[in-house]
Each structure stands twice: as structure tokens, then as C-alpha cells.
Amino acid sequence: MKNVISSEFETVYIPKGLCVLSHYPFFNGFSVFLNHIYRVSCSPANSVPLEKYVSHFVHNVPLPLAGHPGVIYRLGLNNIKFCLSHEFDLPTLNFSLQILFRCLEIEDVITLFGLVLMERKIVLVSKHYHIITPVAEAIRALIYPFQWKYTCLVAFFFFFFLQNAMFRFFIPVLPEKLKAYLEAIVPFIVGMHRSFYDEVFLADDVMNIVSFSLVSLPTFFKTK
């Protein structure tokens, strides 16, 4: 018996995700890029594979030099500027601090600012993944000219049981499988999702900011 193969092709749709991983907090630039890719993918007039856009962005856009004028990348009708500040210069932020003040009251921001300066153990908790990292990065940027010097995780494991004030760590979004990190004896800034907050043990010296979410700013705070 012969197999009958239809000559007509059917269109099959499958979900596709795209994530940008980088050492640098170019949040606004990456957001514009991903939004552009999404719009292109939804356009029936587009004939260029999405992989072409991604390949060009990854391989052809140079990394800006610290302390030099930024790199401007033309993407459709948008200009994306990437820039890095020198270690001893006023930091150049590639994201808005507005999100911090939309999530927390002024009194809470001041309290959080003081806790960071005192190198306390801080946990930021929210049910919205997309705002945890910007809030953590914003509060870290606000302490300039001070810096939150953090140790890489490999070194942290090595010195985990050594009570030395020079070691601290910064994890914008903590995976659930690494929740044991919250029992560390060193200072830290950690962001975590609300879904497993009730499952973790937090010592008395851990300061937690729980369940912040975006709120609308008053009219006189809004930017044009």
C-alpha cells in the first residue's frame, strides 16, 4: 500500500521566544530592539528572517568604550544609543529611575537608600518579574559616588562561611533553586518573585521590601 502525500502545504505556528543576555544594563536599548523584532515578526510585508536582525545586532553593533561618546544604532524609525561611563565619572544610566518611584513610596526609597549605604541584607519581592531588575539597578545607581562592589558567585561559594565584610553579592532576580542564598552571612541585594517568598527562611537581620507593583505617577511627575 502506497502512502499518499498531499501536495498542499499547511502553515504551522509554533511559539518562539527571544531573550537578550548581556553583562551591561542597556535596558532601554534592549527593550526597543525586542519591541522592533516583535513588530517585524507581526508584519506580513516583512521578508527578512528574524535571525538576520538578531545576527546583525549581535555581531555588527560595536560595544561602546567607557567614557567615550556612545554608539548609535539605527533601527527602523528609532535611534538606540548605547554608552558606558568611566569608573570615576558620573554614571550614565540606560534606564529610567522613574520605575523605582512608581513602585515605592518616597519614604520607602529613603529607607532603602539608607539600608544600602549601611550594607544591610536586602530582599526585593514582587509578583512582576519585569520590574525587579530595574528597581534593583536603580537603587544601586542612586548610591553614587559609592558603589556596591559585589563578588562573583564562584568566589562567594568559596568564602561562604567566612564572615568578612568585604564580600557581598547582588542578584537582581534570584532563581527559586538558589533560595538558600538568602541564608548568607554577608550583605546582599536580592530580588525574588513573590511566588516562593513564603517558602524561604529570612533571618531577623534581613530587610525585605514586599510586593511592590507599578502605580501611576501624579501628573506633575509625568514626563512628556
Query: How are the strands of the biggest sheet laid out side by side?
Result: 4-5-3-6
CATH architectural category of the largest domain: 3-Layer(aba) Sandwich
Instruction: Report the total helices.
Output: 6
> What Rg, in angstroms, do the CA atoms define?
22 Å
Termini Cα gap:
70 Å
CATH superfamily of the largest domain: DENN domain, C-terminal lobe
What sequence of helices (H) and strands (E) makes up the elements?
Answer: HHEEHHEHHEEE
Helix content: 25-40%
Strand content: 5-15%
Could you describe the largest sheet, including whether it forms a barrel? 4 strands, parallel
Pfam family, one: DENN
GO biological process, one term: regulation of Rab protein signal transduction
InterPro entries: cDENN_dom (IPR001194), DENN_C (IPR043153), DENN_Domain_GEFs (IPR051696), Tripartite_DENN (IPR037516)
Protein name: UDENN domain-containing protein
Feature tags:
alpha/beta, Rossmann fold, disordered C terminus, four-stranded parallel sheet, 6 strands, single chain, 224 residues, two-stranded antiparallel ribbon, 29% helix, 6 helices
Q: What does this 3D model show about the protein?
A:
- With 224 residues, this protein is α/β, with parallel strands linked by helices.
- The protein folds into two domains: 1-95, no CATH class; 98-219, 3-Layer(aba) Sandwich (Rossmann fold), CATH 3.40.50.
- The chain contains six helices and six strands.
- It has helices at residues 27-42, 50-60, 98-103, 106-117, 129-142, 153-158, and strands at 71-75, 78-82, 121-126, 169-171, 188-193, 206-209.
- The protein has a four-stranded parallel sheet, covered by helices on one side. Strands 1-2 form a two-stranded antiparallel sheet.
- A hairpin with a 2-residue loop joins strand 1 (71-75) and strand 2 (78-82).
- The longest helix has 16 residues, at 27-42.
- The model is unreliable at 152-165 and 217-224 (pLDDT under 50).
